[in-house]
């Protein structure tokens, strides 16, 4: 049902992107869980002496125990440090109340896990999302249809601008005059059409009646769309087509003037020649030699 509404196309792509990210999400959480558990065990064990030291302030000991007193508490605190970004509120009290030597642990953990590993995981998620967006066949088809419609609309605007007479057709003189303007050539280049001269473009667009209609203009420009090599290929195809038409016309004229014979006529003449070889004069006598007696 969602696919039937273009309004929900972005939502469908978002859901598919989330689905493709699930494997990466699971493995990334496993990796981060390993790092967080290791860090929690190390930090919790190092702070146990401070928690048990009765000479320290009771308030400081309670704060440290609340955040790092057990494996669960220490793991949850590092989870906040990793994902919530509030590591100063969880790290600075330890440095100020316990020891500044813990700065080594926090520097390593924040630099490696919070900065490096998290960004690598984010990059993987982004890559999976972009791959899913590029591989969505339906989205690609709709996107190409939309771009083609926009391109055709721009071509219609160009044709109306070139058609100064308002007859709905373009002549070779008008096209040459318009393409002599550098701004018009530059605009054609924005349409991904490299045009050097109007005469060549006109012969590519014209179907032989000496004028270019809107449909011929759009169809020809769509075929010429691309770099210079693309329009050269189209020009070559047009030349080959014209040459084929001329050769066909020449052969037809030669057949009409009986300078050459068709294939069926040539085969008929050949068959008649073969029959003449086996023709026998009825007045001639044919004598057969007697068969030899084998006995």
From TrEMBL:
SUPFAM superfamilies: EF-hand
GO molecular function: monoatomic ion channel activity
Domain Ion transport: 2-125
The entry's keywords: Membrane, Transmembrane, Transmembrane helix
Listed GO CC annotations: membrane
Alphabetical list of Pfam families matching this protein: Ion_trans
Principal location class: membrane
Stretches that traverse the bilayer: 21-43, 103-126
Topology term for the membrane: Multi-pass membrane protein
Stated name of the protein: Cacna1i protein
Origin species: Symbiodinium necroappetens
Gene: Cacna1i
């Amino acid at each position: 049902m969602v696919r039937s509404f273009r309004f929900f196309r972005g939502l469908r792509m978002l859901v598919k992107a989330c689905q493709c990210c699930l494997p990466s999400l699971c493995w990334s959480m496993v990796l981060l869980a390993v790092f967080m558990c290791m860090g929690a065990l190390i930090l919790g064990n190092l702070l146990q002496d401070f928690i048990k030291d009765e000479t320290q302030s009771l308030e400081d000991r309670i704060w440290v125990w609340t955040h790092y007193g057990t494996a669960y508490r220490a793991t949850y605190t590092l989870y906040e440090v990793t994902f919530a970004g509030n590591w100063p509120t969880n790290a600075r009290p330890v440095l100020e109340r316990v020891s500044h030597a813990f700065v080594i642990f926090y520097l390593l953990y924040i630099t490696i896990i919070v900065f490096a590993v998290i960004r690598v995981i984010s990059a993987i998620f982004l890559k999976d999302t972009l791959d899913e967006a590029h591989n969505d066949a339906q989205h690609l088809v709709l996107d190409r249809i939309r771009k083609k419609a926009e391109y055709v609309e721009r071509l219609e605007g160009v044709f109306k601008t070139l058609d100064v007479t308002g007859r709905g057709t373009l002549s070779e003189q008008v096209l040459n005059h318009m393409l002599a303007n550098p701004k018009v050539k530059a605009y054609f280049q924005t349409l991904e059409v490299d045009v050097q001269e109007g005469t060549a473009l006109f012969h590519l667009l014209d179907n032989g009646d000496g004028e270019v209609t809107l449909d011929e203009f759009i169809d020809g420009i769509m075929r010429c769309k691309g770099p210079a090599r693309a329009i050269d290929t189209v020009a070559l195809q047009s030349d080959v087509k014209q040459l084929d038409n001329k050769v066909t016309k020449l052969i037809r004229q030669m057949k009409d003037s009986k300078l050459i014979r068709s294939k069926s006529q040539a085969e008929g003449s050949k068959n008649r020649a073969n029959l003449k070889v086996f023709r026998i004069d009825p007045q001639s006598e044919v004598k057969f030699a007697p068969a030899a007696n084998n006995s």
